[in-house]
Amino acid sequence: MTSSQYELRAEHRVAPAAAGGAQRGPVHLWHICPAGRPVALCGEPLEPDAEVRPMSEWATRLPGDESITVTRRCAACADAYAAARWGSGAE
Ligand SMILES: [Zn+2]
Question: Would the pTM count as exceeding 0.85?
Answer without folding.
Answer: no
